[in-house]
Design a protein that fits this description.
Chain lengths: ~400, ~400, ~400, ~400
């Protein structure tokens, strides 16, 4: 039980659960969560067609473009059900980075940008990527280190950028590119966001960076933009205000990550409990042995705490708050807690837990990078601590913003 | 920020914070949290008189008897502010076990019992104790092991009971005694609750069990009842349904413990952050050193997760749910998390952290037993695991109910 | 510094380090530790030929068959250096399960068995497998559950066995098969070990169980033996004493696992520290940030504690002790500690830490199953606790032997 | 079993165990480990007289002065047995700070200093204190912050010092005072050690800093020296080389702390296991329940790892190595591990675990400050990390030496 709501969102969650069980999990488990092996964009189109039919596509998208307009609190239960399969978010068009890009564009895009970029994304016609992270010593956990540059030319800008670990880049229809329009690397301002169709001259997807996770369509890519022209009308929001929009995107995007991974971790937990209840050891059900019960109980606690923290941050976001501190806390706690859940589930299943016979090891593998993606836990802790010192004492200390 | 509420409860919380800072903390810190050294019942009466004046007494008590009638959600912020001082709960008449007994009596007491037992408790005229725990091999974490007996006699019952670790027993005006009216030790039913004035013949407070905590008025006592007569009208609720009422009391009582200890842990944290911000080490503010920031951030996370879990369980309780699973999870998580907070606060303050120069060590000392009182974490985990197995698989496994 | 020894073993360790760096790591890193992709048995033969040339092959093998006769204490430093590459143990012929099988055969094999089975294994002419684990509900963490059977026939035995997760089975020259010669599943005695050439009629390698680790040559296989004839002379040791020999093998085999994984974890740690020292973040070297220093220090502590525990158990084993308790403690601690080391190393390297650009993620992936293989931590803890209760109180409690 | 030694040290350990059980534990448990309540220096003299009779006094002291001359490895088992009672170290004259001061004086004192200061300490005629720590912003975890000053005058020095948390100061016969003879606070050199009889004019024991531990004779005191004259002959070692001697003292002193606290933690563990084996719960022995077994096993692992790390550092120290890194690792690990042991023991004993009915809570209380005394874990981690970065990469990073 997740609270008093009995609503459209609960109904959507129930229907999502059934949809995922029927259409998505069988594919996920056949291909061990490997989205390329399972069909890549073909798979996406096939699954999204079914979701569209079922009235489940892009539930967080603006209603004007065909979405269901769910707020953050309402997304929680639905996205958790989607995340129960590694391909569920793709099927419902709520996968990263598109989900966060829809959110961002809905808040910031103006005029024809909405029709040209937001609408096709909500409909699932294209995928997109958010090109911010750079290789060392560029922008990563520290966005002020941004080195990519946009130079003003007549009618627009020329972009020169080197990006890294750009999720979903391969096959994306357009990129949201983060580049410096003023200042130097190390300055905290001066960044701008640009909308860039993928077929624009000068863009190269250099390579897929091979990572331990395999379920993100379009991979995590290295990307180069060499003198790519972007007309003024494709500046997203205002020039030099890019970091402000990052905040608009980041808080909610972290929360929806948490929602999806909560679903995946819950699946690992449920599979493990099923296994433990069916397995006999030392004359008892494995699930009846104290050392197994500790694993099970700790999983329940971690899942409950993750959901409770999530709920509180979502309430604030739905009320228009930025919830910087809250989302940072939720992201940090959840990334660690959910990986613990998957890790304990592996342990509970013994030899099968680390095999592909059960879906537990793949879930652990997919969740692990979340402790790094979207800000490593260490950077979040740094930021949480600095804010705490400021709130409690009024004193500023050094470190990330 | 704890959510969208802006209400009487928030106002009460603010006023409680001011009251505690002005009237309670100075006493607490003078006596290192030792309630006997600080004056015992005299201190209680003095502080409660001030709270009454300030309109803050017994905020959870029924309005008909002079309380403020706060529900569980509303109690959270107020009780946290009370718990900021170890004597705050006493001052507001929201300390264990009276607070939980008020809750229990309000739900179960009938007829004249309300006037004779509940009303004076709400007014702060008397203290009370809940006499359930027994020495080994009697009732403790396993209530079915109950050995204390009530034998039916004409017009009432004769109680023979040996109780242990009965909080607040010394100086209590009456006891709520838990004794077996049918069945044998090991049977899960057959327990009944009795209301027993402390001056009834045959009651002996054998001794204070010396424990590491020192802020609970009336101690944790060993108690003997030998042939104590209780008239039928002082049976609380129905005969043989005692365990059902335990559930009425336990869930909320665990949550209010969590509220109070959250306040205490927050104080340890705030004192430590103040200290760290003022202390220079290795050419930096201690609060600016990464290893200190880890401690600060982890405290923020633990406090936030505790409050978030608490909030969700309180919503369910206010809606009339039993929230057995939720309160068990909250209690287990919070008892461990809040002790971690106090422990990290000690660590942050270095040598002063384990001294009486700062209020941190005393808070750690007072919180530690909460991982054992009201059900050790291990027993809660056992119960949480069994319930999870049942919910996920439909299978029952052995262990505590 | 690992103690006062300055010996042949130290010299061997140094030469092993150089050998691994020159000949093994380049292959390991080209193929991301995937032994099949890197060439499988061809790779093994190539690397072992080089190790033979360098005088480093089978350093723990009996001298009579061409090994170097190293005891357990001396193995520690050498095997750690071998383990620095995932393929190093294969190159030196100290990989599981052959390494443990050499140890077992050296202790138990008699007469012509030594020449027919032990000698070719020491020379690296063949690989072998230890076929004990069975699918549920057979023998796993609880060896008494053994269901595979050997029936006495004229001149030998007929084996009917179903085995699971048999490391190295695919391509092995022979199996050491564990089957019941008396008693029923659940009885603790009655098990016997048989030496069975892989080309014997009735043996089927059913499939590779796909697991998260990829560096074990011959995989983790499902295996069936249907009426396989084994002559009396190929019984290993005495009939019905199989469990006793398991103990001969298990203690040392667990320790050599720890040695190898210590090397792998050390590599992850060193790569991460190199990365952290070279990476600039928030105006500082990453390695100079407190939250990174915590990760680095904890890795140093975990590595040191693992080596210290290992050393003590090896001393006892070299003196002829069984060291059941000690090896159980070392295995449990090390499997968890070394995975923590690899996990922190990933964290320290940020996005690259979970990528194949650095060798950290693959090491974490390979080490993780060690918390399950050779007895899950939970079963070891159970056994450690029971022994502690027995030693401290003289009382026996239920659970695994 | 702790290794292959079978020696005088083992015999001493056995005799120490018997001595502590017969003469020391009864006093310790009667007074809940409170050394003042138990008699203070009178108790010390009484117990030491018995230890002298039993041939167990000052086993680490130089033989020339009546000690037994034990090296570090040999001390481990003996001091652990002494530490089994909180007063055992006092009884054997191996308590901090005298034990470390004997070690320091034996290495550094020259000429008549040996007879005047070392000899009476070895004989147990006097106690001593090591006066280094200062209140903020002076010397603590960062010794370079030293503010106490010694000014050269004819024939000696005048000391002006403010010291804090000086263990054993009240009642000490003499102090080893650490003061700056050159340079300014923040400079890493320029500190000198002085031998100062307690009755010298100008010394004031300002107060006992009340701390959570109660078993250290002479308390943890604030100390002032105002113009205290020290003749040149009472300079300990060379002028300006004080920090070098601190290293001579610190490494071994940390190890002997670990030895003693290992004994105390082992007692808590054994008492808890005895309790768990005798207590019945939910129809089983508590010691047979899985969640209790986890606590028991983790205690065994923590104790074993502590002893193993300790052993390795002691071997190096006995060989004349400084073992800075090793002792830092051992101290950090042990302080945390031994507190975990005591904490789990409390948990295992339920309500009695936090009471004075069992000796577990007092042990937890006494051990906790060890994570702060002698360098907080955080400072040690910082130092361990910096050294690791230097060893692995050759790069220096900022932080404590």
């Amino acid at each position: 039980m997740r609270g008093p709501r009995m609503s459209t969102a609960d109904d959507l969650a129930r229907r999502t659960r059934a949809f995922v069980a029927e259409h998505v999990l069988p594919v996920d488990d056949t291909y061990d969560g490997d989205v390329v092996a399972a069909g890549g964009d073909d798979l996406r189109l096939r699954l999204q067609a079914k979701a569209r039919e079922a009235g489940l596509l892009t539930p967080h998208g603006p209603v004007e473009h065909g979405g269901l307009g769910l707020g953050m609190v309402d997304r929680a239960a639905v996205f958790e059900e989607a995340g129960y399969s590694l391909f569920g978010p793709l099927a419902l068009n709520v996968a990263a980075p598109d989900e966060g890009n829809v959110h961002l564009l809905d808040k910031v895009a103006r005029g024809t940008q909405r029709e040209r970029y937001l609408a096709p994304l909500v409909r699932g016609d294209v995928r997109s990527a958010f090109a911010m992270t750079e290789p060392a010593p560029g922008a990563g956990a520290d966005p002020a280190a941004l080195t990519s540059r946009a130079s003003k030319v007549d009618g627009g800008w020329l972009l020169d950028a080197h990006k890294h670990l750009i999720t979903g880049a391969d096959g994306a229809g357009f990129f949201i590119v983060f580049a410096r329009t003023s200042g130097e690397p190390g300055d905290s301002g001066g960044a701008t966001m640009f909308l860039v169709p993928a077929d624009r001259a000068g863009i190269e997807v250099v390579r897929h960076v091979t990572t331990m996770d395999a379920s993100m369509l379009g991979g995590h890519c290295e990307l180069r933009l060499r003198g790519v022209f972007v007309p003024d009308e494709d500046v997203l929001g205002e020039v030099d205000l890019g970091l402000r929009y990052v905040q608009v995107r980041l808080g909610p995007a972290r929360m929806t990550h948490v929602m999806r991974w909560t679903g995946a971790a819950r699946r690992a937990h449920e599979v493990a409990v099923q296994y433990a209840a069916s397995r006999t050891m030392f004359g008892s059900s494995l699930a009846g042995l104290g050392l197994a019960q500790q694993l099970i109980a700790d999983n329940e606690i971690d899942l409950a705490a993750t959901r409770a923290l999530l709920q509180q941050a979502c309430v604030i976001l739905d009320q228009g708050g930025r919830a910087s501190k809250e989302t940072s806390i939720v992201k940090t706690f959840a990334a660690e807690a959910l990986h613990r859940v998957a890790d304990r589930a592996m342990q509970l299943c013994g030899g099968l837990g680390v095999s592909a016979d059960l879906p537990v090891a793949k879930i652990a593998r997919e969740i692990r990078p979340f402790r790094i993606y979207d800000g490593p836990s260490e950077v979040h802790r740094w930021s949480i601590a600095r804010r705490a010192v400021r709130e409690i004492t009024g004193t500023r200390t050094g470190g990330p913003a």
